[in-house]
Structure formats: structure tokens, C-alpha cells
Amino acid sequence: xxxxxxxxxxxxxxxxxxxxxxxxxxxxxxxxxxxxxxxxxxxxxxxxxxxxxxxxxxxxxxxxxxxxxxxxxxxxxxxxxxxxxxxxxxxxxxxxxxxxxxxxxxxxxxxxxxxxxxxxxxxxxxxxxxxxxxxxxxxxxxxxxxxxxxxxxxxxxxxxxxxxxxxxxxxxxxxxxxxxxxxxxxxxxxxxxxxxxxxxxxxxxxxxxxxxxxxxxxxxxxxxxxxxxxxxxxxxxxxxxxxxxxxxxxxxxxxxxxxxxxxxxxxxxxxx
Length: 272
What we know:
Layout: H1 3-22, H2 33-50, H3 53-66, H4 75-92, H5 107-117, H6 122-170, H7 176-230, H8 235-242, H9 255-258, H10 268-271
Helix pairs in contact: 1-7, 2-6, 2-7, 3-6, 3-7, 4-7, 4-8, 5-6, 5-7, 6-7, 7-8
């Protein structure tokens, strides 16, 4: 489970409810079934009208990824994999990599390596892999776009709920003791709309977008690794090229370490 998502939402909800309590409010006043139905069901209905059903059907599964660990791929291990394969391919040929294919757990990488072994033309191989990567990016984009739409619609529907509540209050102006509670209840719908947008929908959309960017960075690393092996690059060149996709903390070696000198917190550009 991705603790950042869980902790972030918990802190946000806790801060809102805690602030309400400090101000002397009653948390139970935030519970209002009509307001919940107006905002949540209304937002869901608007989202269904704006997107194909196939996109909405896949949204729950996409939301699970926001709560899943973001490091499903280990880029450092993938770099090491390509370095080993490049060394083996230079010594024994691409066909020698056939036995390594079943040990590759990532389907995207496994497909690319198999195509490379089968002798696919380099330009065609790159084109096939980039089409797969772009298709995956499009699927991810559809998911977080829906959440962004929900985050934009929910506050407006919350205002609509408040207006509906005030209309009901106006019908009971001859009962002064009901006006105050009625207005408070009316504004709960606005609270639901703003809170759901800024605590759930928009943060989750941003998380899915960040996960998608990380996925695309990983896929590009794989594509460049395949191209390097197929071109017969030296393993050291393969490492240097692929480590450019890694964050500094993910890199397993530096030029200092390769020279037998203890690594220091200095950038790769300065090390050059």
C-alpha cells in the first residue's frame, strides 16, 4: 500500500474535522444524507454523462493503483539487467538471450527483448514499443482526466445543493426556529462538494498522473536499453546511457566508484 496517499488523505480529513471541533462545531452536523446524495450521486451522474462507460468501469481499478506502491518497477535493477544482457549479447550474440526471457517479469520488457531476439528491424522495434508506451499513457490519461472532471464539477454541484436547501428554508420563513438549522444544513452540500474535490478527486488525479509519468520514464528506459543492446553498445555505454533516466539516489554506481574512489555527494556533471 502507498502510505503517502493514505497518510495524506487522513491528515487532510483530520485537519478539517479537527478544525471544526476547535471552532466549537459539532462534527455530527457535517453528516447530511441529502447533501451527500446531491453532491456524490450528482457528480457521479455528470461524470457518466461525460465519459464512455468503459472508462468509468475501469476507474475503480485505476483508483486502486493510487493506493498501491508507486515503485512497482525497479529502474536500478532494470539497468543492471540490460547491462548484463548487453555484455552477454556482445560475447555470444542476441540469440544467447533466449534463455533470459522467461526470467523477465515485466511484460513490456519481455516483449521487447523477444522482438529483439527475433531479429526485428531496429526502427520497427522502436516503433512497436513506442506505440505500446503511448497506448498505456492514453489509458492512464483517461483515468485521471475523469477524476479531474469530478474535482471540477463537485464544488458546483455542492453550490447547487446549497441553493436547493435555501429554497426549502425560504418556504418556512414563518418558522424562525427552523431557519438557522435549515441554512446550516443547506451549506453542508457546499462543504461536501469542496471537500470531496480538494481532498479526494483532485489529489487522487494528481497521484495517478504522477504514477503515469513515472511509468513513462521507465518505459522509455526500457526502449533505450533495447536499442543499445541491438546496436551492440559496450556495457559501460549502456549503463551510462540508462542511468540518465534514474534519480541520483537510484544510481548504483558513479564514476568515482568505478575508479575505486569512495563516492561523494557530488553531481554527475561535476564528477565529469
